[in-house]
Specification:
The structure is a single chain. The chain has helices at 2-14, 21-33, 47-58, 73-76, 82-92, 99-106, 116-121, 139-151, 182-186, 198-208, 214-227, 238-250, 258-264, 272-285; strands at 37-40, 62-66, 78-80, 112-114, 128-132, 153-156, 160-163, 169-174, 189-192. The strands form 3 sheets. The protein has a 5-stranded parallel beta sheet. A two-stranded antiparallel sheet has the order 3-4. With 300 residues, the protein is of the alpha/beta class. The N and C termini lie far apart (65 Å).
């Protein structure tokens, strides 16, 4: 068992993803038990990246459904090609063709437009299905997913039930902006990904930013770790940390000091209020600890 977990960690590393034992274990169990994996956590901690890394690790196609408010079955599951159906009906309108026969023709595979969920279920080869940001959809859409997540099948009223011949690796991600239903959670294994420790983020920077020095990688990871302790509208993601390290390397910076930070904070901070708050903290303390300067007591 331990050897298998180490093997998965190494394979994910080869696919460009660094993870801990807990993450490797749940990836192993999701594959062994053929269960979907629900990954929750703040934006930008590597939830989508894990699914992409598994796709690369397994050398399997990645089918991605990007969720958004208002998404419906036509965009996620399937829809009928109404234009082609209409053309077929017009072509046979003056022919003596049985109505039932025409109906069978237009509601056949020929006129079916497969969207990501149906593509994954009906794929002739194994694949990785990523249902990204599931917390953005409504409960009705969640309910529609239950058949797929539990039985790996989709029912189309006009055609019947389509079952997966190759069960896909299913990943669902959530930024935890709302509580997901217990029915959906019950069908999945669960993993919570938080922002990495400074030490782990240093390793990620070394992997993702070729040529970065150990000192600069350690300093960026440490400073970003401190920034994430501040009450901000949007905490910097790992991707933004990588962008910052790459930008500093491009500028020929060997170390990260307050002056350099003030000039480049906009690479990782994308809200004006957050930027102004951090700049005030740097200027008031002349360091990068990002602790609020305590108010001085002048008297009673």
């Amino acid at each position: 068992m331990k050897e298998q977990i180490i093997s998965i960690k190494n394979q994910l590393l080869g696919a460009g993803y660094i993870c801990d034992d807990k993450t490797a274990t749940v990836v192993y169990l999701a594959e062994s038990l053929k269960k979907p994996l629900l990954i929750e956590g703040p934006a930008g901690v590597g939830k989508t990246g894990l699914a992409q890394a598994v796709s690369k690790m397994k050398n399997l196609p990645l089918i991605r459904l990007q969720c958004y408010e208002g998404i419906d079955e036509a965009k996620a599951l399937y829809e009928w090609n109404y234009k082609r159906q209409l053309l077929h009906i017009q072509a046979v309108v003056h022919q003596e063709v049985d109505t039932h026969e025409v109906e069978q023709d237009i509601f056949s595979e020929t006129y079916l437009l497969r969207r990501p969920l149906l593509q994954a279920i009906s794929s002739e080869q194994p694949c990785v299905l990523l249902i990204d940001e599931i917390d953005k959809v409504d409960f009705e859409f969640e309910a529609m997913l239950l058949e797929l997540l539990s039985e790996f099948q989709i029912t189309i009223p006009e055609l019947g039930t389509i079952r997966a011949t190759n069960i896909p690796y299913v990943f669902l991600t959530s930024n935890a902006t709302r509580e997901l239903s217990e029915a959906l959670k019950r069908r999945c294994l669960y993993l919570y990904l938080d922002f990495p420790s400074a030490e782990l983020e240093e390793r990620i920077l070394k992997l993702k930013v070729p040529g970065i020095s150990d000192m600069l990688a350690a300093k960026v990871a440490s400073v970003v770790h401190h920034i994430r302790q501040v009450d901000l509208k949007k905490l910097p993601s790992i991707a933004e940390s990588i962008d910052w390290a790459a930008a500093l390397l491009e500028l020929g910076v060997d170390d990260l000091d307050p002056d350099v930070a003030l000039e480049t904070l906009n690479v990782i901070i994308k809200h004006r209020e957050d930027l102004e708050k951090l700049e005030r903290m740097v200027r008031s303390r002349k360091d990068l600890t990002f602790r609020q300067t305590p108010l001085s007591v002048t008297g009673r």
